[in-house]
Amino acid sequence: MLMSKLFVQTLREFPNDAEAISHKLLVRAGYIKKLMTGSYTYLPLMQRVLTKISNIIREEMNASGAQEVLMPFVQPASIWEKSGRWAVYGKELARLKDRSGNEMCLAPTHEEVVTSLTEGILSSYRQLPVNLYQIQTKFRDEIRPRFGLLRGREFTMKDAYSFHSSQEDLDREYEVMSKTYTKIFERCGLETRAVQSDSGAIGGKVSHEFMVLTDTAVGENDVFYCGKCGYSANSNHAISILNETETDGGFSSQEKVYTPDTRTIEQLAEFLNIKPNNILKSVFCIVDDKPVLVMIRGDKELEETKLLNAVQGLEMRYGTDEEIRQYFNCEPGFLSFLNINKEIKVIYDDTSKTMKNFVIGANEKDYHIVGYNFKETPETVDVSLVKEGEKCPVCKAPLHVTRGIEVGNIFQLGTKYSKPMNACYTDEDGSLKPFIMGCYGIGVTRVAAAAIEKYHDDFGIIWPKEIAPYHVVVVPVNVSDELQMNTAKDLYEKLQKEGIEVVLDDRDERAGVKFKDADLMGFPLRITVGKTINEGLVEFKVRKNGEMIKIAPDDVINKCKEYLK
Ligand code: ATP
Ligand code: MG
């Protein structure tokens, strides 16, 4: 490729609507261009990266025995009604109508389509197992589309769905997919960790997320992991053994006390001279438009996904001060579950179970009740966020936390879709049974972004060689110098002949500009043909570590091959 012909324009500045470094760099280096919020054109350089990632995925999926299909992007509401998700999917699902008024949606995922696909094709246990995958566009009207390709509204996903006649066979395939995923990401130059996760809207019980762990990235997930036994889980799923704390507040009797200006746990703890873990705090939420009060130990925080699971909700937000006044007839900061409006559902976190003689709000401005004890221990559920340093639930070593970007996930769906959609096969004994299913996703565009989050520096992207758009850029310093230009062209042609993907920066620009662009775009290798060609030498530079050596043009091919193997 000639740089002068490449459809690209690098920018001097970062775009001002970008937060994530991958987003900033992809825009500035000319890989993507925004059409509207969360939706981007993939320019030629990007398209090459995505093709490489897709090809790696194809090769490994095919090797695992899965078969590629391509399902429609616009789907009829009827199949979503059958699965029960039309009513519950929420605003992420972009709905539309055709000219006859039939309701449809843009594909956020394909469980419904693939499950209905089996009808008339898969009918006997003898045809199982089957694993079907596709690489395709998805649309989700994400609540916070941001971070460029990390979380777009329109993005590319590889999704696979498997069908089985037994749980054991699903377990086997789940393992195969887990290994396949690790290999796919490794081949993309990314180390991943499979962490236990919540299954969310997709449903099912067993699921793992494949995370690229990065401390710096604006990854959206906190991952808790144990350095000793390898336990790791998304914060929405992680559990811990709490460190020993005094759960007795030490009050000898129950009393309503005047606690002015103590709206926060810290203020209240200081005022009463107790520890936050002797306060049972009230967190007021609105889940799917209904009021929910969460009671949780004062030193712990609410984990939103756990709460949604506990109340089988879809969307939650914290109640506003105004809503608090409306539901409790009380100022924020003094709430509790005592004598409240029956409409409010109360959830007790597991941490409330062992508390004694503790403090709660009095549902009256400036008052709390101290020395409270449950008459009957309420039913509790885990809705709290694990904290770094709490103990591993498996081996009790301290847990650590890091940021992670979820690049893929695997789920055991069981019969969650096949049952309501009546997708059945005939078993050995002649009976009809719903398929036992698994599903497996990879965010193709997110993999590219995650690679940049992981591999970049102040000058730009540092692509892993496996997914770089081109391996080498050849830069003649002065294009009007005949020897320099001829040598550069000669190298360009020879590299191409050897199957090495190369860009020749033939632009009549200052060398500094070309070097900057080369670094920004992130090609793994740069060959510079400058003045030293008069002594028979060119410069060979490795983007990753800045290593630079002078070599003869004749040695360039081997040197590149050696690096790229
Ligand atoms: P997340 O929790 O990040 O929203 P998800 O649980 O919705 O992900 P799935 O529906 O299982 O994800 O999709 C499979 C894969 O698709 C994810 O692992 C992720 O890599 C990718 N993905 C999901 N949503 C997006 C998005 N908005 N933009 C880019 N990639 C995405
Ligand atoms: Mg999502």
Account of the protein in words:
The protein has 565 residues and is of the alpha+beta class. It folds into three domains: 246 residues, Bira Bifunctional Protein, Domain 2 (BirA Bifunctional Protein, domain 2, 2-Layer Sandwich); 138 residues, YbaK/aminoacyl-tRNA synthetase-associated domain (YbaK protein), CATH 3.90.960; 93 residues, Anticodon-binding domain (Rossmann fold). It is 24% helix and 28% strand. The chain contains twelve helices and 31 strands. Strands 3, 7, 8, 9, 10, 11, 12, 21 and 24 form a nine-stranded mixed sheet that branches. It has a five-stranded mixed sheet with strand order 16-14-15-17-20. Strands 28-27-29-30-31 form a five-stranded mixed sheet, sandwiched between helices. A hairpin with a 5-residue loop joins strand 11 and strand 12. The protein is globular and about 95 Å long. The two termini are 21 Å apart. The relative contact order is 0.14.
Assign an overall shape: globular
Q: What hetero molecules are in the model? A: adenosine-5'-triphosphate, magnesium ion
Q: Could you give a short account of the major beta sheet?
A: 9 strands, mixed
Computed structural class: alpha+beta
Instruction: Report the end-to-end length measured between terminal Cα atoms.
Output: 21 Å
Query: What CATH architecture label of the largest domain applies?
Result: 2-Layer Sandwich
| Number of helical elements | 12
Helix content: 10-25%
- Number of separate structural domains: 3
Total DSSP E strands = 31
CATH topology of the largest domain: BirA Bifunctional Protein, domain 2
Mean pLDDT: 94
Provide the CATH top-level class of the largest domain.
Alpha Beta
For the CA atoms, what is the radius of gyration? 29 Å
Low-confidence parts: none
| Name given to the CATH homologous superfamily of the largest domain | Bira Bifunctional Protein, Domain 2
Percentage beta strand: 25-35%
